[in-house]
Specification:
Chain lengths: 109, 188
């Protein structure tokens, strides 16, 4: 069971109040992209054991999307942050580094 | 005009550990826009008396305003006053980016009252209902069993629950079962 803090409305709720929206920080390649880029966007997903970044929606609450950084192994939530960003903010990265030194995920570390 | 009726026409369940009542028709307006906008704040104050803070509800004798999300309020008035309230909002907010929609007949409203009302709610929603954690004036959107709902304490030992009209009967059955006699948990 995950306990997530919605950064949009400030409610601290458990998993069933939210809905998972897949991997975070994908670039949506479409018109004008190469086949390889489009394939990457459509099919290629991270499946890490450990630090992971996801999109979540507070569907039984304020209805807004946000990002969450969590550990797939321990279900620990490192933090949640705005959906309007291309990469995790520094405080989220610092929070992960404090607990999982040397972590990396795609281009982030 | 057709005669408006509420989802369960005032159904009630008594004799359990809490009393469940459908509260009948209530005028409800979804107001979306920039909640920091001065014109919008003024318009809301004109209807409900106070602008609610985040995750809170402001109620006076005849109207109320609840904070639904960072860009949405739920305004509650008498059922008959909803169309005129929307007209008033439309003229007050002219020129700003906003939406005011009459959702009165899309909703069902219930009251759960009695000394064990907190327990009945706590059985159904993943929300901390401890007396010091959930207090009067707070407004929470969550789920009750399988359906989304919004809830607040209308007075001590009484909760008001708002859900979609389409799940009104489900909500009533759900609350009634959670409130059936002898089902006290004793958690609070």
């Amino acid at each position: 069971m995950l306990i997530l803090d919605c950064p949009c409305c400030g409610v601290s709720g458990e998993e069933t109040e939210f809905h998972a929206g897949g991997e975070a920080h994908l670039k949506r390649h479409s018109v004008g992209s190469t086949d390889d880029q489009f394939e990457e966007y459509l099919f290629m997903r991270e499946n890490p054991r450990g630090v992971h970044f996801e999109r979540w929606r507070h569907n039984n609450g304020c209805g807004k999307w946000f990002h969450a950084a969590r550990c797939t192994q321990t279900l620990e939530v490192f933090g949640t942050y705005s959906a309007q960003t291309y990469e995790p903010p520094k405080e989220i990265k610092d929070a992960i580094s404090a607990k999982r030194p040397g972590w990396s995920w795609r281009n982030f570390s | 005009m057709s005669n408006a009726v509420s989802a369960l026409q005032g159904a009630s369940y008594v004799g359990g550990i809490a009393e469940i009542r459908e509260l009948g028709l209530r005028g409800m307006i979804t107001l979306r826009g920039d909640l920091a906008d001065k014109k919008l704040i003024k318009a809301v104050k004109g209807i409900a008396g106070t602008m609610p803070d985040a995750r809170r509800i402001a109620m006076n004798d005849k109207a109320g305003a609840a904070w639904m999300s960072s860009d949405e309020l739920l305004l509650m008035v008498d059922h008959a006053d909803a169309p005129s309230t929307i007209e008033a909002l439309n003229s007050a907010l002219k020129g700003t980016h906003f939406l005011a929609a009459n959702v009165s007949d899309a909703r069902a409203v219930f009251e759960v009252s009695g000394p064990s009302a907190r327990e009945v709610m706590a059985k159904l929603a993943p929300v901390d209902f401890a007396p010091d954690a959930f207090t009067q004036g707070m407004f929470r959107r969550s789920r009750l069993a399988q359906v989304p709902a919004a809830l607040w304490m209308s007075r001590e030992d009484a909760f008001t629950v708002v859900c979609f009209r389409s799940v009104g009967e489900y909500m009533f059955d759900l609350l009634s079962v959670a409130a059936q006699g002898g089902s006290e948990v004793g958690a609070y």
